[in-house]
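U., I forgot to send this yesterday:
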Amino acid sequence: MQRQIFTEEHEAFRATVRTFLAKEVLPHYEQWEQDGIVSREAWRAAGRQGLLGLAVPEEYGGGGTTDYRYSAVLAEEFTRAGAPGLALGLHNDIVGPYLTGLATEEQKRRWLPGFCSGETITAIAMTEPGAGSDLPGIRTTAEDRGDHWLLNGSKTFISNGILADLVVVVAKTTPDGGAKGLSLIVVERGAEGFERGRNLDKIGQKSQDTAELFFHDVRVPKENLLGERDGGFVHLMTNLAQERLGIAVAGIAAAEHLLEITTRYVKEREAFGRPLSRLQHIRFEIAEMATECAVTRTFVDRCVAEHSDGGLDAVHASMAKWWATELQKRVADRCLQLHGGYGYMAEYPVARAFTDGRIQTIYGGTTEIMKEIIGRSLLA
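Result:
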């Protein structure tokens, strides 16, 4: 079915993204995978190409568009290329809204130009060793010391943790306030007492640096409070719908791409003297996955259109996230199986997609958390 949500301008942007991937990403990707981190030059190249800060106002160096469909194109093309290591979506669509929506004018002028040029790479630090999806269980504290915040605590599984120059840290500013005692504190590279742990060794997305962060009596200027004091939980909930939609967009794009390469493979691969595609079981497998992808694509595209118009709510974003990522997981497993032994070989795209995509049902809120959000909305 012909997709209806993109215009000629979006497709022109898609061509730009594909050219960028072919020139600046794919030739270096194997080396990045071995290094466990991407080149900072790739971030600067993305900035020069206008792929950073799509929603940032032009006066700060951004694209000046609130049309989320451009972000969707970016997510789809990076997913199809098998290149999640250069985490532009995290930068643009997860951290970006906090800076554009909550920052003061002084903060915007200080942070956004580098954000858009690729000179300033960003991360958000929520997860702690003892608190994953449980935000009220966060133990990192930011104590008001008059002219500064005194930050203490640790975070883990932080994407862009090694490269990040600007980290939005979720911390308790009112110790006994529970969810209502959280604030967002921005920590900049070089702050005394701010240390990065090891670059964590993951089963997939090897080139995407993921780190532990430690804060030991870090003096953070008072003007680095982002948004309202003790308003962190509300700020986080406001922006989570877009984060989850972005994960869903990548999920269905990955499933569709896996289906494409597997369909080609079973047409070419022979067993018992004939192509695998001649076997009824194989045809049924392909038929089932194609149908599931078509149905999911329709719903996710509707969510993208709704979000571009400002109408997507947290419940439907949660639906899209859990359904698309669980579909991605199933399709990756089935496509690997259809490749047989070759599917287990690292040089085959299906093998990398299998390991790279496994995190999709976990980060941004697990499938179980998504179902809880949906269930509460229906049964409250």
